[in-house]
Amino acid sequence: MSDSFQPVVTSQTHKVDVAGYPVELPLVAIRPDLAISLMMVIDLGVRFGAHCGEKLKEKLAPLQPDIVVGAATLGIPVAIEVTRALGLDRYVILQKSPKVHLGDALEQKITSITSKGEQRLLLDDRAVPLLKGRRVVVVDDVVASGSSLKGSVDLVRKAGGEVVGIGVILTEARDWLETLGADAGLVKGLAHIPQFSNENRRWAARPETML
Ligand SMILES: Nc1ncnc2[nH]cnc12
Q1: How far is CA 50 from CA 84, 109, 193, 198, in A?
Q2: What structural domains does the chain harbor?
Q3: What is the pLDDT of residue 3?
Q4: What is the ipTM of this complex?
Q5: How far is the CA of 165 from the centre of ligand 1 (A)?
Q6: What is the mean pLDDT of the chain?
């Protein structure tokens, strides 16, 4: 994101059917020529969270995962809901900043279209035994650039886990297909959102960002 441009919440919205649950997302301009339909999963209520957990479970359970991994911040509610729906207990959260309780951590650099600058993901080395030799599904709220999910997948593999699937509520545009490469085939999403460009003062879906 450029430092000089402040994101602007527009008056337009984008409707999307998330596996049978309709939501209307605000369009937010993140650059003068680019808007995204922003899904803040933590603002959509517990019914939506539970619905997504259940629908992702239907897609991920056949992969017979042992454990779920999610990246801070908005991957956390998704990891909890998917873990609960799968009937599992433990899950592993990858943090973005060092926490007092973290031991030594494995680290991976990432970038994000909704946050400034470079970030990193940290895996507490005490969580490694939960992943080593295990069948792991990695989850997140939205995959857009793919950077955060790629970082998560790489960290799980560093820890010796086998990534058997990737679950997201929304896929957005197409950049993630290139970032994830062969791992893009592991992605199970509940719905797709395009990105928008400004045409005659209206934001319109860019055809190249449809799936
Ligand atoms: N549309 C979106 N909503 C929420 N988080 C996002 N991260 C990237 N794209 C996003």
Answers
A1: 9, 30, 21, 35
A2: 44-192 (3.40.50.2020)
A3: 60
A4: 0.96
A5: 20
A6: 95
